[in-house]
Write a structure and sequence with these properties.
Helix content is 65%, strand content 4%. By secondary structure, the protein is mainly α. The chain folds into two domains: 151 residues, Transmembrane di-heme cytochromes, Chain C (Fumarate Reductase Cytochrome B subunit, Up-down Bundle); 64 residues, no CATH class. Strands 1-2-3 form a three-stranded antiparallel β-sheet. Helix 5 packs across helix 7, helix 7 runs antiparallel to helix 8 and helix 10 crosses helix 11. The structure holds protoporphyrin IX containing FE. Protoporphyrin IX containing FE binds next to helix 3, helix 7, helix 8 and helix 9.
């Protein structure tokens, strides 16, 4: 980058965050490169479209939502297409983030009886890398949920192609999964915004402050600052 560009106050962090991540740029650290952010928001937007077009079909209580997009018959056309887009975006996310989401031995406590202990200790756990165990669990369960919604959704899309019992199982699976998704999403949005100020920036601009990284992901911070050797 030219010297002139730096002198006029060029936003170096945001610029570098187009292609790089896990690097320190000035006072910031790049957490999510542009392609990761686009994929994440594709998942978010397609899920939202599925919700707005699926809820009115599910129950008349949400009929007013259907009116927003042109009525129930329009919802029935948009919903499965948005569902396929959601599944595709979720698959892209799974592929792109898979390596970073591998659980360490210690993090396995997040899926067992030690869960409460981990939750209590999470805020000051020196071993937390780029993601904590809870984030990894959310990653895996949301991908599993996306698969459940896709499989059950396809069955419901072709009502005459499957036996009655399979359709009944698909209805229960589709409903239970989307309710769990919607509830967990409330926590996800809360944790990613109000609960931990500075986190949302990582999904918009791509960067976080060094202080944010040191507090929430100390191991990741130490590795990027060269204070600790990254574990291979
Ligand atoms: C308005 C809606 C949403 C907001 C504000 C939001 C915000 C964020 C932010 C800021 C991060 C980065 C966290 C970090 O770097 O530590 C993140 C990560 C993530 N998001 Fe979202 N997100 C939204 C919707 C969704 C949806 C619909 C899904 C799909 C199920 C989703 C799945 C994930 C996953 C799996 C991660 C990685 C694990 C984690 O950080 O918890 N997000 N989100």
């Amino acid at each position: 980058m030219s010297k002139v560009v730096r002198q006029i106050g060029f936003d170096e962090g945001a610029y570098e965050a187009r292609e790089k991540e896990n690097v320190v740029v000035g006072g910031e650290i790049i957490r999510h490169r542009l392609s990761s952010r686009i994929i994440h928001w594709a998942v978010g937007v397609t899920f939202f479209v599925c919700l707005v077009t699926g809820l009115p079909v599910w129950t008349p209580v949400f009929g007013w939502m259907g009116a927003l997009v042109g009525g129930l018959s329009v919802c029935r056309i948009i919903h499965p297409i948005a569902g396929l887009a959601f599944a595709a975006a979720s698959l892209a996310m799974a592929v792109q983030w898979w390596d970073e989401m591998k659980m360490t031995k210690e993090e396995r406590g997040w899926v067992g009886p030690k869960l409460l202990e981990y939750l209590r200790d999470a805020a000051n756990h020196e071993k937390i890398g780029k993601y904590n165990g809870g984030q990894k669990v959310y990653f895996y369960t949301s991908k599993l949920g996306a698969l459940g919604l896709l499989v059950s959704g396809v069955v419901l899309w072709y009502p005459t192609s499957f036996p009655q019992w399979i359709r009944e199982v698909a209805i229960v699976l589709h409903n239970v999964t989307f309710i769990m998704f919607a509830v967990s999403l409330v926590f996800h949005i809360y944790l990613a915004s109000v609960a931990e100020p500075g986190t949302l920036n990582s999904m918009t601009r791509g960067t976080v402050s060094k202080a944010w990284a040191r507090i929430h992901h100390p191991k990741w911070y130490r590795e990027l600052m060269g204070l600790e050797e990254p574990k291979r």
